[in-house]
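Q: Entry one of two.
A:
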Amino acid sequence: MSARDWIDKDFYRELGVSSSATDADIKKAYRKLARELHPDANPGNTEAETRFKAVSEAYGVIGDPEKRKQYDEARRLFGGGLRGFGSGGAGGGFDVSDIFGGANAQGAGGSFSGLGDILGGLFGRRGQGSTAGRPRRGADVDTEIRIDFLEAIRGATVPLRLSSPSTCGTCGGNGARPGTHPRTCPTCNGAGLITRSQGAFAFSEPCRDCRGTGRIVDDPCPECGGDGVSTKSRTLTVRIPPGVEDDQKIRLAEQGEPGQNGGHAGDLYVRVHVTPHAVFGRSGNDVTITVPVTFQELALGTTLTVPTLDGKVSLRVAPGTANGRVFRVRGKGVVKRDGVAGDLLVTVQVAVPNKLSDEAKAAMEEYAKATSDQDPRPELTAMLKQRSE
């Protein structure tokens, strides 16, 4: 894709967001569209597959803060496109796209060098020269999985089915039909750029015959259409380390999109979502649990049997223990890979019965009479007394 083609695209409109959208809004919009348009959700729907690729391409630019900054600056300079800057101007055939190559621009006074740097990150060039044949790293890929609470605590091995661009298995990534090979572009001699003189200046632009790749594929691969990349479904085994937290990302090196011209593949980032447990909760490396108790257990004292992640413990509750007190059981929390273990935090909470038997009600009334001289809220009572005087 040439610089002109890229700048002319409105990636914000592709994702349905405004140019002032936050990074979080862009990510949210991308995830929504990716789920709706994913090939697995639309088997055989070529229109959805095309939109899926376009959305992924848009997110690859404006979803990256640095690339988004460069993209916004380039669109600001050219008013959102390059189509108004044709070659028929008064400059005798001058084309604004010439400045993308940057060849000899600094030697001519540097008036275009800044722009070359701005666009370099988007179009694979910085300053002078061509990167047509240089290895380029593939893009990173994001995906999500959901595991249960105990899997997150203990670790797990989870199969992950992923549909993403990958090196074409038919042509091996060179884009040519098996048995044939790409040939060096005769127009640019494999450089990917065409350089021409314009008076005292020398300008370069991507070669239009090879689209800046330096190669021409005469007989394209039937699977990838000459791109060298095809969307495939693959199954990976993801090792979830013990103690992983909700919304944490796990990086799988070089499992993202394939690189170009022999470059390394990008990375795969797996965002982990943890399903809450019915009994246990979590606070950092500590596991939490709330144990219902009766009033008399706290008032008279008792011994509670409390479940842990891998067994049970006995907990001594002293007479007169306050409702809501938290007991700490050392070493019964999350054990991380470095061997450091959190604690089990046990909160005792009085369970108030919805209905009392006649015998229990009579006993409670007798208890109320016996403790009528005890005020559980003396501060509030004193304040109310002052306000009534």
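Q: Entry two of two.
A:
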Amino acid sequence: MRGAIVGQTQELGQIIILNGTPRSGKSSIVEAIQEMFDGVWMNLGVDRFMQMTPARYLPGIGLRPGGERQDIEPLVPILYSAMYESIAAHSRLGLNVVVDVGHHDGYAIKRGILTDSAQRLKGLPVLFVGVRCPIEIIIERRQNTGWKAVNAADSLGPNAVELWQREVHIPGIYDLEVDTSLLSPGECAEVIRQHLLNSPAPSAFQRLAALSGN
């Protein structure tokens, strides 16, 4: 696998981007990849960047679809740009990177963040994975962690969950898709590993970059 021996190779680090809704199981797959895969796998996802974001600008990069926070919307593309530039820097140094994110363009105005992000990773080995999960399972997972529709700490009611579910998989261009209602995190990681080993070179991010027109 690319970049498996850091410091002894000039190869670029492999990048895996997991795209899906909150509670779809992305973070658990990240943990499985870090545990199971050879080499150093850095976790540079949405949760990490939210932890670094000042409280007054939260949820920052995790801003959900709906356009309700137009005051911080202009910052979101900049934060995404910073995250993807960091991902690129790690890969160029031979470090593998796994990213959990929820890309969407459901802002007050279209931001084109996904295609811009793809542009920033041109020439780097990127596997773009769609993480699917039925909405009923996502709502159940939220309820099992204490979520209620009226909970001010997590205001994602059923309508907001449906909006995430619809927006996050547009345009639906992936190299691979996994369903966490059918596979465990470890099984998803193994599917990803086998795809990297046995399938043609990933092309989803190349196709997405082409959509930007640049």
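A: Comment on entry two: Residues 75-92 form the longest helix (18 residues). Residues 1-8, 147-155 have pLDDT under 50 and may be disordered.
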